[in-house]
Amino acid sequence: MRIVSAPEAVAGIRSGQQIYLHSSSATPSVLLDALVARKDELEDVSVVHLHVEGPGPHLAPEMAGHFRHKALFIGPNARQAINEGRAEYVPIFLSDVPDLFRTGAMPLDAVLINVSPPDRHGFCSLGTSVEATLQAVRSAKTVIAQLNHAMPRTHGDSFVHLGQIDLAVEVEVPPYEHPMDKIGDIERRIGEHVADLIPDGAVLQMGIGAIPSAVGMALGDKKHLGVHTEMFTDVIVELVERGVVTGRRKEIDCGKIVASFMMGSRRLYEFVDDNPMIEMRQCSYTNDTHVIRKLSRMTAINSAIEIDLSGQVCADSIGPRLYSGVGGQMDFIRGAALAPDGRAVVALPSTAARGTASRIVPFLREGAGVVTTRAHTQTVVTEFGVAELHGRSIAERARALIGIAHPDFRDELTAFARKTHYI
């Protein structure tokens, strides 16, 4: 490994190459800025990553022709580029991403990573985000690192030895912080409904946003909950400190919070630093249905953009406009469904567009992507209650979903269901 300046670190990247970018809160901003500064020298560099925090300078309109993002999950800063055709979207289960690199299906010329400084044994930590980056390190021809004195050192499957790094630049740039979303009355009611479904000793998968935060706030009377999730936020810190999350009843990884990446505040990053309770693993492990199904009372909590009366869930697009990604929803919904006493929950507000549109719809809008099929959908929750769909007929599903739709739209949904002979 050689310590160099940021411009020197990325000087070897050539036109037409494909690189992977460390994702989420661990976005290697110093290296990325140095790479983007070379735009006039480069053409058709493919930049592969899950969502990245920060401004995403490689996604700006003026970067067209120089850099082309290949999104494995669409973050907010990539949506415009994707929908204007300046970037590409790859629909894929999060659990499958590392194998793209391992098998050479998506070959990598270089990987840009953001790691903690080496310990006395020469190991750096991927810190706040392991996801597919560890496999990218193992597969890429060149590994370029930010040795970041502000990156927390996390345990688990997160270590990269200095011998694996070709070029490095020393920095002190804290991981990107992500503020908690505001919890309103609707989210609070959804959180309470979901919390009622969670028994003591359950193992949780929760994402980011106001609804997962509201669920966490409603879990104060639960005991010995565990966490096995693709990502986590400050909500989990609160539950650990309140003694709600202990992980003591987990059949595997007992006592550990298992995750693949995290986003939150400085408090979260300080909590995970050198904390042996935190086990960071590749998404090929956290999202493996064979692993998830081993956990009794596994409760997966996911969201949706809309759901139709038969139970089809759209979570990655608004009609044809691509919005997010497949991610880990199906990994966890199926894994939880197969787990002993497991439960797969899709939680969403009943309306969108400030109450003018129902999220429970007669049929998914044209161009919408089905992320979770009607056969996989088990439990749906809105602020108006809980609809149990597993093992139910289309008629039973339609009635249950109409029952938790916003009252302003129930007559319209009922009329459609009768017209189509759903009921």
Can you walk through the features of this model?
- There is one protein chain.
- This protein has 423 residues and is α/β, with parallel strands linked by helices.
- It has two domains: 2-171, 3-Layer(aba) Sandwich (Glutaconate Coenzyme A-transferase), CATH 3.40.1080; 185-419, Acetyl-CoA hydrolase/transferase C-terminal domain (Glutaconate Coenzyme A-transferase).
- Helices cover 25% and strands 22% of the residues.
- The protein has a nine-stranded mixed β-sheet with strand order 9-17-15-13-12-18-23-27-28, with helices on both faces. It has an eight-stranded parallel β-sheet with strand order 1-11-8-6-2-3-4-5, with helices on both faces. A three-stranded mixed β-sheet has the order 20-19-26, with no helix packed on it.
- The longest helix is centred in the last third of the chain and has 13 residues, at 407-419.
- The mean pLDDT is 97.
